[in-house]
Design goal:
heterodimer; A: about 1150 residues; mainly beta; 22-stranded antiparallel β-barrel; 5-stranded mixed beta sheet; elongated; B: about 525 residues; alpha+beta; Serine Threonine Protein Phosphatase 5, Tetratricopeptide repeat; 4-stranded antiparallel beta sheet; two-stranded antiparallel sheet; 18 helices; globular
Chain lengths: ~1150, ~525
Amino acid sequence: MKKKCQEDTPWDVFHGVTKILLKMRLTLFVIMISFFGAMASESYSQTTKLTLDLKNVKVRDALNVIENRSDFFFLYSEKFIDVNREVNIKVQGSAIGKILDMIFAGTDVNYTVKGRQIVLKTPESNNIAGTFFVGQQQKTVTGKVTDSSGGSLPGVSVVVKGTIMGTITDFDGNYSLTNIPENTTLQFSFVGMKRQEVTIGTKTKINIVLAEDAIGLDEVVAIGYGTQKKRDVSGAVETVKSEDLETGTASNFAQALQGKASGVQVIQTTGQPGANVSLQLRSNPSFANAGVLYVLDGVPINDNAGTPNSAKYGTTGVDQSPLNFINPNDIESITFLKDASSASIYGARAGAGVILITTKKGKTGKPIIKYNMSYASQHVDKMYDVLNTTDYMIQKNLIGQEVWMRNNKVAPYYGTVEESSLDSYIPFYSSSEISSATLQQNAIDGIVRSGYTQQHNLSVLGGTDKTTYSFSGNYYDQKGILIGSNYKRYNGKLSLDQIISAKLKIGATFLVSNSTTDNIVTGGGNENGGILTSAIYYPATLPLQDSDGDYPLNSLYTNIPNPLSFETITDFTNSHRTLTHGYAEWNVIKDLVAKGTFSYDQTVNKRNSFYPTTFSYGAQTNGMASINEKSSNTKLIEFTLNYKRDIGKKSKLSGLLGYSYQLSNWEGFGASNQDFISNSLSYYNLGSGQAISPAVSSSKSEETWASYFGRAIYQYDNKYILQASLRRDGSSKFAENEKWGLFKAISASWVASDENFIKNIPIITNLKLRLGYGETGNSSFPGSAFEIYGIGASPVFGENSVSTGIFLSQAANSDLTWETAAEKNIGFDFGIFKNRIAGSIDVYSKTIKNLISWIPFPSDFVVSGVYGNAGKTKSTGYDIAIQSKNLISKNEDGFSWTTSFTFSHYLNYWIERSSESLETLPKYEVQTGKKAVFNGYYGYESDGLFKGEYGTAPTQMPNMLPGGIIIKDINGYDDSGNLTGSDGIITAADQTLVANMDPKFNFGIGNSFTFKNFDLSIYFAGMVKKEFHPDYPTGIYRMNLVEDNLYTYGWNCSNTIKNRWTFQNPNATRPTGVDDGTYANYQNYSDYWVVDASFIRCKNITLGYTIPRAWLRQNIISSCKLYVDIQNAFTITKYPQLDPEQDQSNYYPYSKSVVFGLNVEF
Amino acid sequence: MLNSSQFKFMNMKLIVLSFSRLKLHYIIFMVVSLFIFSSCEKNLENVTYGDFSSDTFFKSESDATASVSAMYTGMLEGYAWSAGWGAAQGSFRVQASQTTDESVCYWGDGGRWANLKALNFTPDFSPVTGHYTILVPYISEIAIYLDKIQGIDMDEELKQQYIAELKALRAYYSQILYLYYGPVPIRTDAAEINNSSTAVLSRPTNDEMLTQILKDYSDAIAVLPNTFTGSDYGRFSKAACLTARMKLYMQEKEWDLAIADGEAIKDMGIFSLVKNYEDNFNYNNKGGNSEIIFPIVCSPTAYPYINLWLAHALPSDYVDPTGIPLTAWGGYRMPWETYDKFNQNDERLNVLLQKYPVSIDDSGNIGYRDARAGGDIGAVMVKFGPDPTETDSQNSGVDYPVFRYADVELLLAEAINNKNGVPTDEAYSLINNVRIRAGLPAYENGSMSQFQFLTAIQNERLFELWAEGVRRDDLIRWGLYIQRAIDDGYSVDDHVILYPIPRDVINESNGIIEQNPGYI
């Protein structure tokens, strides 16, 4: 009476979802209750239609086939039912009743359908059942069945062994059997759980905890254009389920994925509300790296509109994730297709891996209403540390004196002139000015505030026999931790699925999202910097706002806005995205399903900005306003044929053929004007600006894709699985003969633990070996393979008339073709000690050939180069994921503890470079091999600081300033430009590989504890050997460039400059702040500045409390959970700057959040 | 509206529906129908929007106009930040100034300014190697357009004018390269360009490169009008060609030829000094005047055609006395040592300030700051006037004069003095024209020896032409370029008179293109 999950019905997606649900925790079991419980029990037998064509098969086999093709299972005794009788069955889309009538026609067998359970009886068995136990004492047994986490299990079948007597557990997992004899055995069985047998003895109450059957193996995972049982997957595929995503404050799901799956690197480069998160699957040493392909319910969603410009800053400093349109609460599961053998079915766009997002769908049954809300208070985690007013004055005097000493060649450090022979240095501030100075508010503190996020989410899922629906709405509101930054979003989703006839089903999903972001530009240097730059630079002697309410400016550098004046600007982006997606599925004949899909994805991002005269850019232009819009739309049409068939007793074959066509286009429009008569006009009336020539712009581009794909899966004896796929992709980017690329994949797996010789090893519960080879493509590069004459090199003639120029802007490359990555993957899945410890280990090697790279032309070509296929790179690495159930409680309320751990490593390097690229490759760069790392940082090796007196400089650096970084002389150039070895002077040839900027290891550690109604989870993620160079003097915010910043411009600096070398502090640990014109360009790029940014971050500490059911009004609220979550609790790192993950060019700081949340189900 | 792919979707559904009643043997047909969609493959055509493809470009007169226009952008070295005749570090103007006694800079920028001052050039120092990288492709592209324009059916006179303009531009860009780097290989055969199978050209001799440049100039001079006016103001005219060629002859010390070109310009009879020196550099210069021979016309909203001099040169506390808001980054200053050569009565000091305005009160009184007393490194090099349209405080629409008649007059006087051994009356009258306009006393005819006159010219060129990109050529011509650096305490030798060729050029030619001597 074994029961397996199958996906053989036409509507396998739904069964897949139900099966995933079966593995979920308590809250989700409640959904099941309504699905499998009494209400739904009849509907399953009515809605499930089977198509069978069986000739001369035994009844036993026929029943097995039905079990395999559906969720039905049979209870019967072979003693009474003649299962060896042969029958012929040929039905199309028939209900179970009709099929059973056919099978048992002419016999005395009758049947009872109870949900998915079908009991077969004969009058004889009924009689015997009544008399079977004659003479034995009869009793009643009751009890409750739960899962290992204490959740009630409804729908578990409880059968007296060897009989047809039995029942199924109710809504709360309770069962009751009457009139059964003592000394019999009860069998408890449930989909995805290990069957248990218990001898009754004298007990009358038997509670059972069912263990999961080999972790997740019967779980169904998405594999692209279909689903597969986790057990049968042969590639490197990993799934994260919705309940593992802490989405309390996340505006998009990617933020919650860090460390959750091995080989998935999540880097959040900025703390900006709604900002993008960079997600990397394993690694992809490619220049044409389009990033991961996201597929939402089968629709690729990568083609979005992008960030529109603002008048002054362009697109810089503002970062919005294109994934924000997905409500994280709608997500059922996220599947990572990590290796090429699994991603290859997406061919040319899968070079960087594929992420499949499956959203929640409605089920037949009473509507389930869920409401979640959370509120988080947010505070800045760590902020830039700048000089206070007094220190600013002291340090400005000091650097002034140093510059004066250098200019006058004062002994003993700067020359031989005795200081006493000169007029004395006049400091900027007298000591009395310093001691009596008013301490001003730190500008950094002036722009920081406490923020919050709140969200409300409501969803309704349900359906009738023929129609299922899901509806959800989400409201998300964030007040950023920097002034002027806010984010607000509304999301809605509606999914409908309709069975039209036994053969035809249609469905549609509508996803709409509307968000408004108040942009506050960060990043950038000098006057191009945003609010943080201006706050860092703001002189510590100035008030942020004067008594008149005006915003003072640094008189030495008036072109940087006052940091507080950013409050007065208008700059917001309105984003709309609508994704509609419809399908029709037709069960053509037995085993064959045809499906057609159409989707339309439209994005419009519109940015309005106005700089009033209170803001210095507004003052300079007398008000500057702009409206910029970017839009995209993608139409996708797909057609697939799915075929599944059992061949003989042990073999199964499934096949897929498909065609896909996609047309994407992008448009842009912008207008700006300046010189407005009043600030009150804002951006509302661009025409009223008085600029001589207001700016207008527009753009359009288009790309077309066509693809054919196919896949075959062969399975023997459920132990050996062979899978192969092929995809042919064409893109309009390439020239005529290079448009098409062919991407192949083959993989195999072996469930070794099903072999008898392993079954006998007691500690091994599960062991599976996977082998895969696959190819994926990449064509993501700006431009195309065609010659383009660009418009825009336009001079001005006469007085103000622009004469439009046309020039060759892109050279043709008719040989340019797909970049192809070939990846080999070997993986093991294992479970030991009854799956107390389970996990997987994958090792891979990926070679990218025909690397699409910029190939520089010789200097007498008209354009500087062209995109071509040059070189090969390689990535090798491994991913490890382990889950351990450290403590399992014996009963529902006990203490349990589980740990999950992910760990991964990769190394990217060049294995071949083209002759063209070698011509321009600097000689000091490693050409190929493991030392030729793909993301290498080349610079100069440092050898400490020069502390000596004038004239004692190292020989290779004559006349260097004291306190400077000493650079090692390792090479020189000869006449033909080759390296010579040490040549006695410092030149560009002295550069060498000083760091690999890729992290060496990524890891995540999660611990969760449950006790009674409490659950606690603590989550860590981190990276090891990640290098960064945050502090180098000309780095973006130049906080250490003392002479230029503090002396020349009066900008504030980092507190670390107090540790610099000065004539007063000749044993300092940090270099001098005085510019060394001769050597600065070498010193600034030395390894002195490269630091280890390894870190371990406590991402979450979440404490939840589930309100006992007894306290709830059962008829209204079925479940209620409260939780507190501390996000970004702490980070352990030696990294000296704000955050080791943060991008240096967009440094909106991270926040620490305390989240309060409530989940209720009705 | 349904678009094409939606139609295809509907077609597909029709196919699906029409076969819905048929059985197994139609499966094959269904599979075939899957591949019938190959019709879509035709839609994999690449479409270019907003730009031109090789199918649509260079067919008409307007294409010819646009391509000639594009070649003018080499004057600002394309989209390099205010390079060429612009005002940033990569510009001819600023390099002529910062590598000489004319100016110094307040900024550090990783030692790049200090290295310019010290003539510390290397093949990796992009501010000095960038001209090669940018201008060589312009010269190649001009060769292609010279070839393509022949086949265009258009007004013949205009076609000849465009050809002449292209040749003038090519000659001028080549001249810049020649004077910075010495002779360098340039492509003049369109068929050889953008062709990977073409052999690398080695460096020509001085004479070979000069011959090519001079041929282009004489071809252009034969066709171009003396000047361009109205909506064509800013195009390369005959007078501009003659001025450029005269400058080349001056560097080659071909005094006779330089004099001939100078006299030819003078004999056109259309050029004279404007009354007010400053009017060459303020908004009054829009549309041209009798003195400006060749300008870069600017507009505050037409990047890169924006004048950024004031933004680079003004101290950040500078306040425009007329109340125009100005961006001021506080970079360039003229060292006091150089400034002190000026006569304090020189009216040209109106735009070269020791005391500069820092405030205006409500009654219009202007407050000044004394830069020298305040310890500044030099005088404030205002030179250009603010843009009264106040469109943008940073981007000014004041034109950059490239060639001025005052420059021609001083060069002509210098050439005559060099040729004759003593200054002639004409030479005196030429230099005096310039002095008198500046409110200075004229030199008396016959009052100076050849050497004294040369010294007078050397000083006058500094007073008149500072911040106009001539100082480097001047000092090199006079043999004073290296001396200036030595006087400033730098140890340099003659090889730095030529900039180094970019390292990439040497490497990618496998050494066929040789580096200038002294650089490794």
